[in-house]
Amino acid sequence: MENRADDQLRALVLCCTLKPSPATSSSELLGRRVLEALGGHDVTGDLVRIADHHVAFGVSTDEGDGDEWPGIRRQVLAADILVIATPIWMGQPSAVCKLVLERLDAELSETDDEGRMLTYGKVAGVAVVGNEDGAHHVSAEVYQALSDVGFTVPANGVTYWVGEAMQGTDYQDLDPEPEKTASTTTTLAANAAHLAALLKAAPYPPS
């Protein structure tokens, strides 16, 4: 059955590359491929490159003084699916990714009239790229943080590519895209769209 307009699922990718535009970004490329795969499930979406915005350090919904997080947060809350796309640096999520997770910490105290966090019922996925080890560690850190602030992670909720250690090849240098990464992206999109539709139809009960 085709979705009605008001049932249309929306996704938002937060790209956590350290590089502002117009520099090319493997994290952005993989994030956009997740959006393309979600499009196959009638999910529309957008990508925000955090480094292109003034996002202040902090753990509130608005740090003032030109902080652009409130506008990004509105997009997060309007989406049914949130994807965090991050590179690996020193075996860790990028500093920009950690900044985003810290800002999402504010959602712990933002609730609806029945005591549920505003992020309840939203699905989250992760996209990771790097030319060093650490994809599982990075996804584990991001999964835990997203779960803590109310998001639900589907089965196989990550897609990633990790190149040979200590080499200079990036994900964006690969043509064609590795089949395994493409297939995990397809699975992430299918499971995220499926779970988001279920949670939209049957929200979590009040705490």
TrEMBL record:
SUPFAM superfamilies linked to this entry: Flavoproteins
Domain NADPH-dependent FMN reductase-like: 11-157
Gene3D superfamilies found in the cross-reference section: 3.40.50.360
Record InterPro entries: Flavoprotein-like_sf, FMN_Rdtase-like_dom
Organism domain of life: Bacteria
Protein name per UniProt: NAD(P)H-dependent oxidoreductase
